[in-house]
Amino acid sequence: MVYGAVLPTLFKNPSQLGQLTPELAGALGSYALIGVLVGALVAGTLSDNIGRRMVVLIALVWFSIGMGLSAMATNATYFGIMRFVTSLGVGALVATVGAVAGEFAPPGKNNLYVGVAYCGVPLGAAMAALLALLLLRAYPNRATSA
Predict the structure, then answer these.
(1) Which of the four pLDDT bands, split at 50, 70 and 90, describes residue 112?
(2) What is the pTM of this model?
(3) What would the CATH number be for the domain defined by 2-144?
(4) What span, in angstroms and rounded, lies between the C-alpha atoms of 101 and 47?
């Protein structure tokens, strides 16, 4: 969601990642979805070997670092790679967090806890996109400077 919020700024200002075409912008957006898929598929096997809680912790650290590195991207290639790498952690987290929430839910509250856990991704993404828009409005010169 943040990508969609900042995409108009990236189109207007080639000094951020270089000149973006609609095709390149679409590809950059798709890299994250591919990363989520791969991360989710790997998370099941990994959680069988090292435990679900450990996968959640690793995934949180993984995508937190990845987001920071993505924010420092100066070209589309690096940005695309980091979107994929970061999304591996997001996919692992999404695939694992529901199971962890279910493990800790009190009897009879399993569905509620799992449902609330899965609400975290869209709510967090919406909040991050809103924050990105607010920052772009508050610091318009920063978003358009080289």
Answers:
(1) very high
(2) 0.82
(3) 1.20.1250.20
(4) 14
If we measure between CA atoms, which residue out of 109, 83, 94, 116 comes closest to residue 47? Answer: 94
Is residue 129 within 8 Å of residue 5, measured between CB atoms?
yes
Tokens for 123? 């709510």
Q: Mind spelling out the 3-state secondary structure of the chain?
A: CHHHHHHHHHHHCCCCCCCCCHHHHHHHHHHHHHHHHHHHHHHHHHHHHHCHHHHHHHHHHHHHHHHHHHHCCCCHHHHHHHHHHHHHHHHHHHHHHHHHHHHHCCCCCHHHHHHHHHHHHHHHHHHHHHHHHHHHHHCHHHHHCC
Taking residues 35-46, report their average pLDDT: 94
Separation between Cα atoms, residue 19 and residue 109, nearest integer Å:
50
Instruction: For residue 112, give the amino acid letter.
Output: L
The ranges assigned to domains in the chain are 2-144
